[in-house]
Amino acid sequence: MSTTAELIRSSTETGIFIPELVYFEPDALLYPKGKKIRDWANAQGLPIHMTTSHNRITDLPGESELAKYRIAKRTLVVGVRKTLKFDTSKPSAEYAIPIATGCMAHCHYCYLQTTLGAKPYIRIYVNTDQIMEAAAGYISERAPEITRFEAACTSDPVGLEHISGSLAELVEFMADQELGRLRFVTKFHHVDPLLGLRHNGHTRIRFSVNSDYVIKNFEPGTSRFAERIEAAGKIADAGYPLGFIIAPIMWYDGWQDGYYELLEKLSRALPRSVFPNLTFELIQHRYTKTAKNVILKRYPKTKLDMDEETRKYKWGRWGQGKYVYPDEQAGLLKDFLYTHIAEKFPEASVDYFT
Ligand code: SF4
């Protein structure tokens, strides 16, 4: 049986993200983080462009919509976050804390396809001090309740940490907040910048994991499973609360074997000492009509199952409903995962299945 480290060594490591194009809002360069990112981009020899707004990049190269999309995923835009009103982020946290938008990976099912619409480029916000000040305001409003902030609602911030350093700032800020907690999820293994930080147990880091079938077919551009698991071990060693999000859970031929094997591999790879404080979050695959249209344009050969005939329509709050698995299938997925999580990780908790 190969160890995780051997599996990683057997193939090349997933590299860090280096964009092809970089844009700055002029005001972003007034902030230390903006200057630091400009110096980094210069050191990488990247062409730098200016833009009046991080929300309006209109001159991306590319002959077709698809070519423009692919280059957008390799374009970094550095700006100042103007809206400091946080969105809610149920069920994993009370609020989404906005430090970045967009992601360089190409997960076919990613909901950013729809939520970011025509702006799939990656935005990093330089005014982290103001963002943390706003977070402090939300924490006071809810005192004496604990307030949780999710930093990965609109991005995968671990994949950008070598450029932004924003997670490190948030982790250390939250370490001092008696009633504040930070959480984020990632499919990247580039966690080294987070390991030496003072976190006070106030940040929970979760890794998004899935069966081999799902990772292989639908998650191009992310770190491999073995890399994610090795990173999870490092995060646990650094004393952070650790969790896993299994999402999107898919129904396909052989799903039972796939998800059983996933839990088996996780339980073998992780040290037993992390089991008691481990959390699982379980999210079934779902899609909207709009998402389906966008996904089929961007990943025309995708094997993603989006057949409305086999799904249940769930009305949404804003009129846009989702296609989910019918109750019977959802029940089977849920029971299967709850049973085997309890068997392999008896002390862990499942936060939710949705
Ligand atoms: S890693 Fe996460 S944020 Fe990035 S494309 Fe995949 S699902 Fe979307």
What's this model, at a glance?
With 354 residues, the protein is an alpha/beta fold.
Portion in helices: 25-40%
Kindly report the average pLDDT value. Answer: 94
Largest sheet: 8 strands, mixed
Shape: globular
Number of continuous helical runs: 13
Q: Secondary-structure element order, as H and E?
A: HEHEHEEEEHEHEHHEHEHHEHEHEEHE
Question: In angstroms, what is the radius of gyration?
Answer: 20 Å
- Poorly predicted runs are 1-10
How is this structure best described in words?
- With 354 residues, the chain is an alpha/beta fold.
- It contains 13 helices and 15 strands.
- Strands 4-5-8-9-10-11-12-15 form an eight-stranded mixed β-sheet, covered by helices on one side. A five-stranded mixed β-sheet has the order 2-1-3-7-6, with helices on one face.
- Helix 11 packs parallel to helix 13.
- The longest helix has 18 residues.
- The radius of gyration is 20 Å and the shape is globular.
- 40% of the residues are buried.
- The N terminus is likely disordered.
- Iron/sulfur cluster binds next to loops.
